[in-house]
Amino acid sequence: MADVKGNLQLRSPVVDRDNTRRVKNGKRKYSALFRAISAGAAIVCLLFAWNWLNQLYNASNRLDELPIMHRNPYIPPIKLQPLSSSNLSKFQDCSIRNLLSTGLPFLKTATPPTIADYEERRNRIAEALVADSVDAFVVEPGYTFKYYANVSQPEWEVWEPEERPFLMIIQPVQNPKDGKISANTTFLCPTFEAPRAELLGMPFSQPLQFVKWEEHWNPYTTLSESGIFRKPYINGTEEIKIMIEEEMRDFIQRGLGAAGFRVVGLRGEVESVRQRKSAREIEILRAVNTGTVEAVRQIRKCLTPGLTESEIIEVLDNSLRAIGLKPFFDIVLFDENAANPHGGTNGSKVLEPETFVLIDVGAHLFDYSSDITRTFFPPFLRKPAEGEQIPAHLEEKINVWNIVLEAQTQSMLHLCPNQSAASVDIAARKVIADAGYGDAFTHRVGHGIGIKAHESPYLHRGNTHTPLRSGMTFTSEPGIYLVDKFGVRHEDVFLVPEASVSEAFEVFGPKTLSSSSTLYLEEQQQEEEEDGDDDGKEERKRQGVRQVNKQRPKQRRGPEILSGRRATSPWDP
């Protein structure tokens, strides 16, 4: 198009301004919506990642979610150890969540020992020393030192047990006014180490007393010439008679002997002080053992096919840490690996639907030990209905499981005052032998438990002269181990109750303890040695035992279980 002068003129396009505005507004809306969705997705991803990391690395902090009535300020959660594989995080999360969901009521009443508790223990030792006619009890850092003065060997010597003796000497002193016996405690210590000993915070209400020795002195002669031992000596001789604890190293024993001390081993009333637990100790043992059992029960619910023995150990340890318990050993064994009671394999065996799982585990709370064992099927093996036909290999596992449980039940009946330590073992062993598996029960039935997982008295059939006393705590852990097949063990912790008047005069009382226990022992030994002997003779012997048993009270207060509740089936450990 040209104007009048012949110049070209370009026509402006027609613009729909309303439509353009609508397009721009639409783009803005979609852009804002996209940004909002992106931001929301990012927030969701961040929240998911935070939640996942929190579950994986800080699962123990879930204690904060528990009702305050079940919180124990003395038991903080312990930092979890990193897992060897991220694939275990779901398994661990399930286990810890299940355990925390119980509310942890078993931890509610446990509290650590106080200074007064430690002083009471030392005073009991002083009274026991007088009863045993001993002038002093001498201890070096270890479990016994921990029990009486709250210092373990690693807490004194972080690097290794050293050659310089640091000894606690507990002596009985008598108050001239009331005649009451109490403990006087002195420490034999290198001079340069005394300030460090002061910083250990040992539970004494009075300043610590030291006999100090220089590096170029003989520490044992220094002790004997220190003047802390005064005549007349309690033992009634011219020698200073000292009792040492069972863990004392040989060179210290020899050094004390060479310095003129008469050294005797741990025994008598002195040994029994640690064996009989106080109310506070019992509550701690109840808490740590019940917690350990509960951890095993809850982890079982989370098991899946393909897990290895070692992987279960990892997660079980962290589950215990999450509730404030300190694991110190784990044994997880599948099927034929459990035929060796304490394992020894590399932990690589894989969990399958019909696997028999044996878990033996211990943890610490306030330095007291748990030691429990459970044997069970994984949760993904369906429990057969009543009357349902069961494959022979599974039927054998179930049968052996029930025999071992009955053996534990019978052993419990002997965990009473004035029974012999041997009688507990013999009762369990008889059940297993009668079922035809006598040779497959290869260890003692149990042991004392306290600040040390294994401590005296020991429950074996040769210990016929040790009477059980109220306040003692024991494991009962019978087992059957079938080579190349499987192993079964049930282990719980029990408290010997207070004796009633009738129980104090049972046939297994002090005067008849040895003869009664020996009667059962001889019966079993004779049955083993004289297989095929005259049935009438054996029956008369059994009748004699039954006649003696008729003299017992019909009602006897049984032991108290300190590990929650016993297993009821391979599907309910």
Give a topology summary.
Elements: H1 17-57, H2 89-101, H3 115-131, E1 136-139, H4 143-149, H5 153-156, E2 167-174, E3 181-190, H6 194-198, E4 210-213, H7 219-224, E5 240-244, H8 250-258, E6 261-264, H9 268-275, H10 279-300, H11 309-322, E7 326-334, E8 357-365, E9 368-369, E10 372-376, H12 392-412, H13 421-434, E11 446-448, E12 455-459, E13 473-476, E14 479-482, E15 486-489, E16 492-495, H14 501-504, H15 513-529, H16 535-549, E17 560-561
Parallel strand pairs: 1-5, 3-4, 5-6
Antiparallel strand pairs: 1-2, 2-3, 7-8, 8-9, 8-10, 11-12, 13-16, 14-15, 16-17
Instruction: Strand order, main sheet: write it out.
Output: 4-3-2-1-5-6
- Biggest pleated sheet: 6 strands, mixed
Strand content: 15-25%
Give me the CATH architecture of the domain at 115-275, please. Answer: 3-Layer(aba) Sandwich
Residue stretches low in confidence (pLDDT < 50, at least 5 long) are 1-15, 56-70, 501-533, 536-554
Enumerate how many helices there are, as a single number: 16
Predict the CATH topology of the domain at 115-275: Creatine Amidinohydrolase, Chain A, domain 1
Structural class: alpha+beta
CATH top level of the domain at 115-275 is Alpha Beta
**Mean pLDDT, rounded to whole units?**
85
What is the subunit arrangement here?
single chain
CATH superfamily of the domain at 115-275: Creatinase/prolidase N-terminal domain
The total strand number stands at 17
Organism: Xylona heveae (strain CBS 132557 / TC161)
Keywords: Aminopeptidase, Hydrolase, Membrane, Protease, Transmembrane, Transmembrane helix
GO molecular function, one term: aminopeptidase activity
Protein name: Creatinase/aminopeptidase
